[in-house]
């Protein structure tokens, strides 16, 4: 069953094309996000994209759907977008390969597809994301720093994402390995099915059983959800002290884990520039215009070469720069981070209002 397809109106109905502002003839943008497991999609990406579309075009609108991690649901949502005649589609695929035929159908309907955050397969017209290899390098560099001057004598576990569903997983892994390989021993490396925290939890328990709790000195976790599963396993197996664990996405729970010392770092990817670029790209293509300087980069997918792209850089967040990154940018307030449960740790970290 299709999940959560709703309309976020930004003005009156109308045909595609036209200039901008009140004189615009009403471009309709489809926005399909992959799941609600990662809080970013509903809390940040959706409202930011919808807000930017409305800001740029008061007579345009966004039709929205969240697949809740279900490939079949997202395929149905794509079909619905075609039926409703959107002028451009922003798509974050649940599974890039599985959505290839759907992307082809959208293209056949003469609707440009903007791949958002994850590189879709098939004939896409544009791509907006963060530089995956740069993100991986940030994670690897931070982990080496946490391991200290004797990193070469230390052993880590790698909890990667799912490359079969998300091509970014390979980029994160490649970037991390470019830093870690030869500088630390990699005891176990897992590709985590579906990016599921519970799978990461099971994998981590297996690594502890195989390597021994005393022989795991750090964990590369590709995102904050995987980090949560890893840390839960470490705690359940009474691993003390917790080894440094990386992450990505700067989820609130991850920032709080960093404050208390359970997680070492995360990669903050400022969602506003990413959302802005996607909205602008979708409106431009939806009006039948060329992207030009709006997409200065180029990427290749397994099916399409020379895709116009916007690639952004991530930012390392540790306990020492929470205030100057996610707080300064307005992603979270000190009050949100430092709820009563975390008040003591926040005070020690200098995070007081």
Write the layout of secondary structure elements.
Elements: E1 6-8, E2 28-33, H1 40-56, E3 61-66, H2 71-84, E4 88-91, H3 100-108, E5 113-116, E6 126-130, H4 132-147, E7 155-160, H5 168-180, E8 185-191, H6 197-211, E9 218-221, H7 224-236, H8 252-260, E10 266-268, H9 271-286, E11 297-299, E12 307-312, E13 315-317, H10 323-327, H11 334-337, H12 343-348
Parallel strand pairs: 2-3, 2-4, 4-5, 5-6, 6-12, 7-8, 7-9
Antiparallel strand pairs: 1-3, 10-13, 11-12
Account of the protein in words:
This protein has 353 residues and is of the alpha/beta class. It folds into two domains: 6-124 and 271-312, 3-Layer(aba) Sandwich (Rossmann fold), CATH 3.40.50; 132-269 and 315-333, 3-Layer(aba) Sandwich (Rossmann fold), CATH 3.40.50. The chain contains twelve helices and 13 strands. Helix 3 (100-108) links the parallel strand 4 (88-91) and strand 5.
Strand content: 15-25%
What is the CATH domain class of the largest domain? Alpha Beta
Could you estimate the helical fraction of the residues in percent? 25-40%
Query: What number is the mean pLDDT?
Result: 92
Distance between the termini: 46 Å
Number of helices: 12
The CATH superfamily of the largest domain bears the name Response regulator
């Amino acid at each position: 069953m299709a999940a959560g397809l709703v309309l976020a109106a930004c003005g009156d109905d109308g045909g595609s094309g036209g200039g901008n502002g009140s004189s615009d003839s009403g471009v309709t943008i489809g926005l399909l996000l992959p799941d609600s497991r990662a809080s970013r999609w509903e809390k940040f990406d959706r409202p930011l994209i919808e807000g930017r579309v409305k800001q740029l075009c008061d007579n345009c609108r966004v039709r929205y759907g969240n697949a809740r991690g279900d490939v079949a649901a997202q395929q149905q949502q794509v079909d619905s977008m075609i039926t409703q005649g959107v002028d451009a589609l922003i798509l974050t695929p649940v599974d890039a390969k599985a959505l290839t035929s759907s992307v082809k159908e959208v293209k056949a309907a003469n609707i440009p597809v903007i791949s958002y955050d994850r590189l879709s397969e098939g004939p896409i017209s544009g791509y907006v994301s963060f530089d995956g290899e740069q993100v991986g390098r940030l994670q690897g560099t931070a982990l080496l720093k946490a391991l200290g001057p004797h990193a070469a004598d230390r052993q880590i576990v790698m909890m990667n994402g799912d490359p079969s569903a998300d091509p970014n997983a390979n980029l994160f892994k490649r970037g991390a390995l470019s830093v870690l390989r030869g500088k630390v021993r990699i005891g176990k490396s897992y590709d985590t099915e579906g990016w599921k925290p519970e799978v990461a939890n099971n994998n981590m328990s297996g690594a502890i059983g195989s390597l021994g709790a005393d022989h795991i000195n750090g964990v590369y976790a590709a995102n904050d959800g995987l980090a949560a599963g890893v840390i839960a396993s470490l705690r359940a197996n009474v691993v003390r002290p917790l080894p440094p664990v990386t992450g990505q996405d700067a989820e609130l729970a991850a920032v709080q884990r960093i404050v208390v010392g359970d997680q070492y770092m995360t990669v903050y990817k400022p969602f506003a520039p990413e959302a802005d670029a996607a909205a602008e790209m979708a409106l431009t293509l939806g009006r039948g215009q060329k992207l030009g300087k709006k997409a200065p980069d180029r990427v290749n997918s397994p099916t399409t070469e020379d895709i116009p792209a916007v690639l952004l850089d991530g930012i390392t967040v540790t306990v020492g720069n929470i205030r100057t990154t996610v707080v300064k940018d307005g992603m979270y307030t000190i009050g949100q981070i430092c709820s009563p449960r975390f008040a003591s740790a926040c005070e020690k970290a200098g995070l007081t209002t």
